[in-house]
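Let us work through a complete example step by step.
Step 1: write down the sequence.
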Amino acid sequence: MSVSILIVESHEDGATSQAELYRLWGYDVRVASCASEALRSEATPDIVVLELKLPDLDGCELTRRMKSNGNGKCPRFIALTTSVFDDDRRRAAEAGIEVYLIKPINPFDMYDALNKLAAPR
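Step 2: predict the structure and record it as C-alpha cells.
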C-alpha cells in the first residue's frame, strides 16, 4: 500500500515541484492550494506537508482542524515553511506538527522526514 501525502501550499510552482519529487520517491500525492481546499478533501492522507502561511487559514489551525475531524484516521504533519521564528516553531509543535523544516531545504532532509513519518507507529 502506498503512503499518501497532501501538500498544502499556495505557491503553485513550489507545490508542483514538491509533488513531482515525492512521486519519484514512490508516494501517492495530492495538492491543495489553501487550507479550505485541504479541509474539503474526502480522503485523509497519511502525511500532510504544509506551509504555515496560507492565504485563508494559519497552518497551525489547519493542523488542529484536520486532527479533530473525527474520522478515525489522523495524518502526521510536516511544516515546510519560510517562518524562522521560534514562536511559530512552538505553535506548530503545540498544534501537533511533528517535523519543522525551513525553506529552502535540502531534499534529503525532506526524504528523511517523510520516511520517518511513513514508518508504522
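Step 3: interpret the result. Residues 9 and 33 are 5 Å apart (CA to CA).
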